[in-house]
Amino acid sequence: MVNIVHKFGGSSLSSAERYQAVANIILAHTEAGDCVVVSAAGKTTNTLVKLWQSYQQSDQQAVSDILLQLDNHQRTLIEQLLSPTARYAALNMLEQELALIAQQAQQQSLQEAALLAHGEVWSARLLATYLQQLGLAANDVDARQLFTLNDGQLLHQKNQQACAQLISANSINVVTGFIAADCQANTVTLGRNGSDYSATLLGSYCNAQQVSIWTDTQGVFSTDPRKVKKAIKYSKVCRGQANLLARLGNPVLHAKTLSPLKNTDIKLVVRSSYETEASATEIVKEGYSKAKRFITTLENIDLLRIDQLRGGEIGELSQLIQHSLHHFIENGDTYLLVPASATHQVVSHLQGRANIIESNLHGCAVVAPSNDVAQLFEQATQVLTEQSLTPRFSHQDADYILLLTDQSIDSDVLTLLHDKLINKGQELAIIVAGLGNVGEVFIEQLSQQLNRLQHHFSVKLVGLLRSRAMLFSPSGIALEQWQSQWQNEAIDYQQDDLLTRISELDYEHKVVIDITASEAFSELYPAFVNLDCHLISANKYAGTANNDWYQSLRRNLAERNLLWRYNTSVGAGLPINFALADLQNSGDSITHIEGVFSGTLSWLCSSYDGSVPFSDLVLQAQQMGYTEPDPREDLSGRDMQRKLLILARELGLTLELDDIALTPLMPEQLAQGDWQSFLDNKQLLDDFIAEKAADAAKDNKVLRYTGALTIAEGKVTAKVGLAYATQGDALANLTPGDNIFVINSQWYSDNALVIQGPGAGKEVTAAGVHSDLYWLIQNLK
Ligand SMILES: NC(=O)c1ccc[n+]([C@@H]2O[C@H](COP(=O)([O-])OP(=O)(O)OC[C@H]3O[C@@H](n4cnc5c(N)ncnc54)[C@H](O)[C@@H]3O)[C@@H](O)[C@H]2O)c1
Ligand SMILES: N[C@@H](CCO)C(=O)O
């Protein structure tokens, strides 16, 4: 089975040293069954083209000179690479082939494509022989036996069968790029950059997993890295943008190269054959990478207006001039950008339907996410005008802009444009898990918040998760339409799918915001950290997990410079964690924390006067979004126990949950069974509370549920449970739903520091999550 198709261009094979470097790459990156597509070595194709031109001009002397030049180049490669036995056979074969070309030239029977094909045939044969010499099973394959075209159209079925028959599963198949055959077995060529196209065709016919284009650049950059030092190399580029760039003349990839990959899962990777350790650019399917910004320059372009462009005509024209072409519609007219050298051919092919509107233009195209296009259009026009390069023609489309000028854009102007238009890192991708009470409000508030944050940082919501379905959109989910996008695009997922999608996000920073109440989800935190995600949690499970797990998570975060914030897990939006951290960072030491840390239990106890059954109040609290998904988590005291543990760990204590004594606010037996069985037995709760309230009332007290943590002489005691508060006390007067934190420390010993306010509710909690997000961004800057 073909796993990877590798492709090496002419510059990667320009000398014996380069062949050796390629062989080393093959040794390290291929296994039996893989294919290696090669172009002609160095400038061999150009030399063969010159030979053809001299032949057409009947310049016999030039033909002989060029043949000698080819002989010298190939001979040097063979002599430097092959052992004496292999060398003898290779030189013999080369001699015969060159003699045949000379003979055909004399007999006036040379064929252009067959002549050009020699370059690739020589490369494939030499590389395969050299690999054998290194002990690898390798064979050369002439692509004219693999790819057949009829009338310019590839015969896919026939070609697929040929590949299945001729590509060996037991050796490295070194395949000639650029060439194919017609139905009469005549050689045809696949056009400019044909070897890249050969590689993707072969990949699709063989159902390969990946096509790797090894080239002399390191990948796809935001602009030409030779002209702009600060050009950004992108690790991922979507096929749509790569295609558009190719049509606009960007030289890294050609539109044709991408076409065989349409509707396949084959990965396309562009990487450097010179710096093999450098990271590569992966061209991924739509939706698997965020849209990026690029500037590509245009040189010597003519602008044609075309009447009645027919379907498929652009393809025909590209084939004719062997160049990717781009057309667009402006005010109802169809325009075509044509390299000036090919205008004549295009105009005559279109027989009176093409008018040259502007000729000899230069300029640039800026490819960008659609939301950014309008702003970039203004900025780019301004930069060019300031540089006295006022555009002669401009066009704004859905995902790019085109600015055509009289003079070419030199590297100084390109650098100015790049500085102004291209993001320089600092992007944060947000994944939100849990779209319940708090999650929904958080997303509603996010759009307003992002407008503010965008001034400092580029922040995008890229993922939404419920327990079974997920929605990922690497370029950003439209916040105004997230619900309809969810309805239409969310898909079921397994844990591995989620981790894969997160790993594919090509952002400088990622944060998973956990607004679930799921312990299972919190168990994924170590996996998120391994994928370099920051964490924000409203969920309390990770913060209260056993100490070994918790400490190991903290260590992993620290090792990777990642941040974790979970302020809302205690006191919702109240700044309790800020206060504790601040006191400790200022040198204070906390001795005692006491109070009511549950919005639900605060509201229930303060609202209860016996007139409404307690269980009815529980259902109301649930409706108001105060309770945990299962309110028994609150009634059992467990939720408050978790909060006290989180506070204790903020103080640097290494308690476990069960180190905090707990007395529940419900009869033990109600903890068993599902929610319905609780409802069936709610009378037990009502009787339990009525009894406790009556007991408290005997001393003119009221029911409250409180927690306390004391550190005295190195000893820690902590508990949560029912308390009777004296009428008129701060605790008895607590506003229903409010939390209160009474903090004693070295500095606040007699007169405690008190923090009080709403401790639950979807709005305040969502606002608290935003505060954590803001804090994170401040710390990333
Ligand atoms: N409600 C509050 O006032 C408040 C205050 C502070 C903290 N919190 C915490 O915020 C969290 C959410 O509270 P809520 O009131 O919004 O709860 P909720 O039950 O309304 O929402 C939780 C959501 O998480 C989803 N979910 C469950 N498991 C998931 C998984 N594995 N992956 C993705 N999504 C999953 C559920 O489908 C649900 O939509 C809880 O941990 C809670 O303790 C809530
Ligand atoms: N159920 C929790 C939510 C806030 O953590 C409470 O009532 O306090």
TrEMBL record:
Q: Which cofactor does it need?
A: a metal cation
Q: What is its EC number?
A: 2.7.2.4, 1.1.1.3
Which pathway does the protein contribute to? Amino-acid biosynthesis; L-methionine biosynthesis via de novo pathway; L-homoserine from L-aspartate: step 3/3; Amino-acid biosynthesis; L-threonine biosynthesis; L-threonine from L-aspartate: step 3/5; Amino-acid biosynthesis; L-threonine biosynthesis; L-threonine from L-aspartate: step 1/5; Amino-acid biosynthesis; L-lysine biosynthesis via DAP pathway; (S)-tetrahydrodipicolinate from L-aspartate: step 1/4
Give yes or no: UniProt keyword Amino-acid biosynthesis. yes
In alphabetical order, the GO MF annotations are: aspartate kinase activity; homoserine dehydrogenase activity
Under catalytic activity, the entry for this protein gives: L-homoserine + NAD(+) = L-aspartate 4-semialdehyde + NADH + H(+); L-homoserine + NADP(+) = L-aspartate 4-semialdehyde + NADPH + H(+); L-aspartate + ATP = 4-phospho-L-aspartate + ADP
Residue ranges of the Aspartate/glutamate/uridylate kinase domain? Answer: 4-272
Domain Aspartate/homoserine dehydrogenase NAD-binding: start-end pairs: 434-561
**Alphabetical keyword list:** Amino-acid biosynthesis, ATP-binding, Kinase, Metal-binding, Methionine biosynthesis, Multifunctional enzyme, NAD, NADP, Nucleotide-binding, Oxidoreductase, Sodium, Threonine biosynthesis, Transferase
The record places domain Homoserine dehydrogenase catalytic at 576-773
> Is Nucleotide-binding tagged as a keyword?
yes
Q: Its biological function?
A: Bifunctional aspartate kinase and homoserine dehydrogenase that catalyzes the first and the third steps toward the synthesis of lysine, methionine and threonine from aspartate.
- The protein depicted here goes by the name Bifunctional aspartokinase/homoserine dehydrogenase
Q: Which species is listed as the source?
A: Pseudoalteromonas haloplanktis (Alteromonas haloplanktis)
